[in-house]
Task: inverse folding
């Protein structure tokens, strides 16, 4: 069925294209090229609906063998001709419709009362068929059709019909749909056994940090006194070594130099004299340094002893040397 909305007005370009398509369609109809002519007329009708175009399209479909489609278009063409006050078109459409009506193939889908079930749905080539259309002859174009009936909880019923004989009447009776077998629900599967509990993984125990080595105050002073005393002893030993070397060098010079008060040494002995003086100074310095360091060691040792006796000792430097003050318990 061709829709002809009155409100939709085609544009000038649409009207021009529709006219061109109409003329081509008429020419192709004259050449009996109906499979090409009918689509052009359909498109022309879509772009610019008109009674003349629709009448030609109905004739094209009739000659193409689509009798039910053409019969429906003739009915619309009659209505348009009456609207447009075109009695010539009205008469042509009515005459062709009357001549075509006896050749229509009609199909009747019957649903007996015994076949009525709740939720019954009918389709024809997958297009729905209203329940009100049941038992009413429906003009259909020649061809193959599949009729289906379905309902909830019922087995679908299907049949096929081939429409080819002009003027025939085909009745399709829908039987009572069989109830569909209730699906057997599978027994619920037993719950899966939980996997065996895994023993807890032993976490490695971090090793304990070694206890810090602690020393009391007296031990610290004892160690320091021993270290400092060792350095002082080395200074004393070096002083003795340097002193012995200086004395040996002096003895050698006494053998070659003359005079009791003022020594007169031979030429070339100045280097030996300088070496003797250097060794003598080194000896004196070593003795002094060693003595000072040993004094410090003695102080540290004394402090350690005081710590052991839980006594308090203070050391100060006075004009006469180191001064020790303390209380002893």
Result:
């Amino acid at each position: 069925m061709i829709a002809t909305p009155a409100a939709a007005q085609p544009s000038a370009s649409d009207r021009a294209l529709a006219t061109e398509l109409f003329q081509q369609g008429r020419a192709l109809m004259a050449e009996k090229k109906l499979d090409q002519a009918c689509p052009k007329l359909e498109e022309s009708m879509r772009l610019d609906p008109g009674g003349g175009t629709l009448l030609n399209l109905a004739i094209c479909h009739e000659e193409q063998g689509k009798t039910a489609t053409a019969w429906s278009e003739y009915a619309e063409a009659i209505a348009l001709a009456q609207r447009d006050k075109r009695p010539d078109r009205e008469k042509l459409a009515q005459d062709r419709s009357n001549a075509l009506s006896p050749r229509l193939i009609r199909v009747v889908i019957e649903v007996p009362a015994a076949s009525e079930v709740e939720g019954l749905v009918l389709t024809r080539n997958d297009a729905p068929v209203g329940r009100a259309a049941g038992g009413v002859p429906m003009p259909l174009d020649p061809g193959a059709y599949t009729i289906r009936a379905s309902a909830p909880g019922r087995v679908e019923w299907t049949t096929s019909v081939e429409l080819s004989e002009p003027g025939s009447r085909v009745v399709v009776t829908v039987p009572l749909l069989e109830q569909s077998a209730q699906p057997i629900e599978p027994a619920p599967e037993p719950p899966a056994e939980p996997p065996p509990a895994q023993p807890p993984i032993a976490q490695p125990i971090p090793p304990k940090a070694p206890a810090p080595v602690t020393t009391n105050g007296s031990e610290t002073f004892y160690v320091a006194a021993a270290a400092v005393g060792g350095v002082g002893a080395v200074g004393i030993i070096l002083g003795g070594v340097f002193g012995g070397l200086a004395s040996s060098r002096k003895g050698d010079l006494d053998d070659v130099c003359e005079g009791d008060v003022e020594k007169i040494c031979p030429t070339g002995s100045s280097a030996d004299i300088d070496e003797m003086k250097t060794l003598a100074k080194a000896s004196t310095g070593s003795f002094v340094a060693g003595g000072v360091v040993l004094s410090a060691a003695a102080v540290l040792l004394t402090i350690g002893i005081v710590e052991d006796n839980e006594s308090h000792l203070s050391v100060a430097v006075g004009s006469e040397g180191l001064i020790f003050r303390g209380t002893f318990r």
In short: The chain has three domains: 12-101, 105-173, 219-259+274-326.
